[in-house]
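Two folds, back to back.
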Amino acid sequence: MLLRLGVFSALICLPLCAASVTLNGRVVDEDEAPVRAARVTVDSREAQTDAEGAFRFTLPAPGDYLVKVEREGYYTLKDRTVHLETDQQLTLQIASVREVFQSENVNAETSPVDVDQSQNQERLTGTEVNDIPSRNSHSLRSSLILMPGVVLDQGGALHVNGSSENQVLYVLNGFNITNPITGRFQTVLAVEGIRSLDLSSGHFSPELGKGSAGALNISTENGTDAFHYTATDFIPGVGVQKGVRLGSWYPRVGVSGPIVKGKAWYSDTLDSEYTESLVPGLPNGQNTRSGWLGSNLLHTQVNLTPSNILYADFLFNVDNQGRVGLAPLDPVSTTSNVHTHEYFGSVKDQAYFGHGMLVEFGYAHNDFFDTQTPQGRNLFVISTSGNSGNYFLDARQRAARDEGMVHAYLPKFQLWGAHQIEAGVDGDRLRYNGYFDRTGYDVLGLSGQLLSQTLFPTPAGFRVGDIEMSSYLLDTWRLSKRVQLMLGIRQDWDRRIDNVAWSPRAAFSWSPLASGRTRISGGYSLLHDALTLDILGRPLDQTAYTTQYNANGVPLGPAAPTIFTTRVATGNAPLFLPRSTNWTIGVDHQLGERIFVTAKYLRRRGADEFAFVNTLAPDAPASLLPLPGSDAAGVFQLTNLRRDDYDSVQVAVREKLSGQYEWMVSYTRSRALSNAVLDANTAQPLQVLPNVLPVYWVPMPWDAPNRLLAFAYLPLPQGYRFTKNWAVSVLADMRTGFPFSVRDQTGVIDGAVDSYRYPLNFDLNIAIERMMTLRGYRFALRGGVDNATKQRNPTQVNNVAGSAQFLQFLGDEGRHYVVRIRFFGRAGK
């Protein structure tokens, strides 16, 4: 009887068991490289691809199924029918978004409201940079202001979420390209060669470190089996500011295609620039500055085997700028000529071992070289009505970085959910050579009398180096379809200060509604900054000697030396890597098919940050001069006394339309405070210390409490012949004016630090573009106007109390007209 029941059950179960089929597949791009984190939908079932681009479905029965693949930055693969009789292997190919006249029925996937995205991240594509008319849109660096958390100050320095520029890590295709001397983003890249810019802040993967305020990851375009080329701004511009004249010229060329079809590809982008800028407020002939630069990036990919891919990059930058520092209060004689070079080369090997395991090995070398030469050897003169003489800094600097990395995705496993473990190590060897030959400067009072003279009698040359080692571990834990956790740890070690810094990180992502249209995410992270090489070189630099004078021009005493040191005079207190504690919380909601609303809060608390403090006069008043004038010697000790606070609330609405068209509106309310404000305008910058103990908070020089940012790239009505193939592009950027301090004739701050502000800053840029085909070739012709409302937007102010021009704002921006021509090659290719 039992045997009959067993046979009967087996006969019933057999067709049911045989009915199910398994679909295994991979998602790859045009070059057969796997696409990670793509969302694959088979009917109503969803899965996400792993590091190998692999996915798996168990389907109830043979038959026809509709497959859909979505990934930000790629065109969506929709409604592909797959017929399954038995278990099957399937490879799905999706194409990356490229700006080559996409048709209106081809759509790029926007950022889905998906629990797979746990990081706090802003993304900007190369296509968006080209479409939106930002000021200096030819410059990748300047275009970063299209991200709501990024501002540029009057000197052109980048500030991400209220940070200094050296508190962000800058990465090109997985390798660090931050200038090791200053920690700044100096690399020039052609916009046409960029696939995406991903700015992570608050909490993000422990793979990225050495930046307490965030990490900017730049991904470049790959070549394909189809030959592509573009040319932009190949006709010189014409300026109409104060008369018609030859303007700036930004020719750029991009070429990509196969080396060996189906196996190896290349992408090469050339960026060149000639600038001729006008500075209002100076006499004719003395109110212009010019410069030129060139950059070339070659990116290659070779598929050695289907499971082994080799990438290589070579980048060359050269930049020559004349009359740097020219401003309404700084005439030609006070300017400098600056020459910089950068070389970067990298190679990375990706190997896939099956079962979701991927390992990357990489090596990169980076060289930086720059010189700064003044117009002469006369003393620099700082007066209450403006500066004169020759700038006092003559410098040669060179630095190099060798970087090695290993990054591995381990096989997935199940334990109360699915786990994807990532682990890696990174090592940097840094070298820095510096040579400084400063002259000196005089400080004049309100009546023109000599108050002090600072001289640098002996040039200084030095060589320093450092070694950095890092390791990290990350577990991406998918508890359920609606909940994901990211738990990670990172350690950073710096040889020069012999400090091991641990960085724990945790983040969550939760979809509370069954519709999947809402995501709540947040996280905590403890992040650290890298030690920049200019800090190591400061104690080996020149010694300044300052002499004070009375009203009759008689010295008050002997010259007082000012020196810098990283060692404590008494005791041996250790230094630590600067750290920041970050908390984030955010809500994303999908209103319609392509409309997304985002609200997020970021809280960053910096501690143990570097500041030089005068140990012989710790209570000396804050000064805005390059070196605070004093009749006593100064010993500036490197300390961890600086503290930074940043809070922001951001709300944004964004919609992606057909093709490249889109619009976005965001508002950010923030505050950026510190107890040790860095005056970045001085050639030998010091920390302006209002007070250290007790902590006294003042606004950062780039604090912008309110910012409204909006842009749009929209088609004109296509039903009329005279508007067909036309598009309008708009950028509106409004923010609170930056703060500044008022000083007396000696340079000492009068009143509270950064207690005054520039006027409201507002830019409205409008452009109209026509896409056309002429004699079988494709072109895009654009004309537009920057600062259409002719808002003043001054860049300098006379901040000397008692001077005739006190609180007079200078350097009005003015209205600018721009023309751009882009060439896309032969139509149909």
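---
second:
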Amino acid sequence: MVPSYILTLADASVTLETVGGKGLSLAKMIGAGLPVPDGFHITTEAYRQFVAANGIHPCVLAVLKDVDITLPATLETASRMICDSFAEGEIPPDLVSAITKAYSALSHPAGDGDKSVAVRSSATAEDLPEASFAGQQETFLNIRGADALLGAVKKCWASLWTARAIAYRVKNNIDQNTVALAVVVQEMVNAEAAGVLFTANPINGKRDEMIINAAWGLGEAIVGGMVTPDTIFVDKATGRVKKMEVAEKTVITVETESGTRQETLNDARRNSRVMNEAQVAELVNIARRIEDFYGQPQDIEWCRAKDRISIVQSRPITTLPEPEISVPTEWKLPRGAYAVMRNNIVELMADPLSPLFATLGVSAINRSLTRTMNESFAMRGIMPDETIIVVNHYAYNNGSVSLKGMARLIFGAGKILRMMFTGAVERWTEKGRPLYKQTVEGWQAKNWRAASSIELVEAVKQLVESAIDAYAALVSGVIPAAWITEALFTKLYNRLIKRRGDPTAPTYLLGYDSLPIRADKSLYSLAEWARKHSDLTICLQRTPNSQLAAMCESEIVPGDVQPTVWQEWRARFYQHLSAFGHTIYDLDFIHPVPTDDPAPVLEALKLYLRGQGTNPSTRQNEAAERREQAVQAMRQRLRGLRLKWFNQYLASAQKYAPLREDGLAEIGLAYPLIREMLSELGERFAREHIIAMAKDIFWLTEDEVLVAAGRLDAGLAGESMAEKIPLRQAEYRAALRVSPPVALPQMKIFGFDLMSLKAKRGRGGKGDVIKGVAASPGKATGIACVLHGPEDFGQMKPGDVLVAPITTPAWTPLFAMAAAIVTDVGGPLSHGSIVAREYGIPAVLGTGVATRRIQAGQMITVDGSAGTVVLHSE
């Protein structure tokens, strides 16, 4: 097979490995119809052939052994020795022939018969989204003649080994042995003006503003920083010039017989503007097309000759600041809503909602909950159609019942309660859970990756709605039944039965083998197995969690672990994830579950590997033993009516309590599949440049996804929506910085919010005291560890006080480390309080402000009996 030394610049088959980052970018832009000067690629195969023919690679390896990037002299010495090898090397005859033949084929000869070309380096680790490598390799302009071209090509190859390029690769962890360099040869544009355009403001991160630098002559003076260019600020949408700063341009780069030189600029151009409004608008239009094509902000080099604009390079902007916007201050309810609260199912949506969940997800919730209320409790026409509404990206439970509906609700309360308790368990065990599981398994068995894009969207909607149907089966029976029966038992026990020294009421309801406890026991058993293999234990403890997860997925076997041990570990770990990896941290599917991001699980595993935390089996057995002993002691002591009441109310509470935790832990059964489907859809969108990356799909709305999916299925080009995403992400970050009101509307008199004042007196507490719900008794003092999600799990240390917006079953492994629990959202019967009691640690939930008022590292005292958190000044 003949080596591919030369490819046309427009060749659609080029790859990063064959033509490097710059060459690939230029080829793509030509394919998209953008104004790029013609030319050809000298591929990386040519570079490797030259290196092999001259025996340069052994020299490179030997020289790099002595390099220390903290010692610049070693970099300079290594670079000089390697570049000397390139300069002394001879280009093989077949390669010379291929280059000169491609050069002769270029059109538009110069006046003397030779062609003037630009010779540009294009490395395989260049112009990438994560590392631009800008300016690391060389470019040579106005090269004429075959000999000059061959000399410039050798210099480009050698520039792969400049001191700054070697250091840059070391700093960015790029293997020096695998890099190669292609060369782009393009027709030379004798530019009257040239410059750089950023499709987003690199100073403040504004995505709706472009910045242009422009100077007279060739672009070398700008790129090299030898001239102060004009700076033009442009509105991206309209192309209108917002501000033009005309600089004094003292230097110009011009062509010579062969090459370029800098000259002093003394004519009228020195203080005149380089571009007029029409030229700016034309350039901005081209830049918009480039950004839309790539789906992300671009750093573009351009030039202008005879009123024709050409693009000579485009690469991603790698240092663009994230846009920031002001935090929301107005909390206005939509028309028709007059009273909303952050309670019930909203407790599983503590964070701001992603755009896709706020549309597709919330509409599925509203359909499901409305159907459940109508069919299970005959409440048609009573509850509002939209059970969940979104205000400033936060979910609220809509309690805006009409007067007629309120009357029906009051007079029908007894009937509704009877229906709630009738078949409450069966509604979950015989209908809700089986139907949910059947739906998930049905889609898992299908070849859904072959489905159309619209079918994928509909599948996601069906799975989300199925998850909410399952939740509705719980919330319409097991959950309220558990809440009511536990509350009744507690009240009866405390008022009529409990004596000084008797166990607390929760003692009688703890020690059951719930799904979160089984997950914790499985993880502990996995750690116990791993501890039998010292090499595996050392590897697991010292390797970062993200890297461990990647190694497991790629089947890479660490060099210091026996392959059979590693494969057994992988099998056991994935068995654990298969059984328990669907537990959710948040109902919004933008948040990964342990199955697709096991890093938080690995962090909890390392706790057990270090011998920290209590054996969950021992803890559960002890709780179960305390429960049985307490029950038996009470039955022996009580007589008559009190014994009857004790047995009756205890039996009801013990019937529902274990089911509640199992049910909540299984709400996420569909979530691994939902995220897989959305990832597949995101990949399709990214390939068509609708979004930059697959994960950006979560920042689109349901309508936008449906339109894009429909166009893909019809074979039509999708419109880029990439530029919308940074602003939406900025809005999300702004929403994260505020504490959403617990209830709306806000009641303001003379500018003061009465609900806010109430919150400060109640949940907010006075001074150094925060008040909340007393959820698990006891008192503990410790360092606050404020975690906003699973990505923060690695910050938790044994003995810390866990402070979080909310805890779901997926947070359970952290309870083994925590001295106490404090949350923004939750009540005495939410997951956090139940598990805290299982673990015997105090908990204060529903503070509303904990994650914002408590600072990470602050010493706090949690009183789970009084429902207070004291903030210590030191």
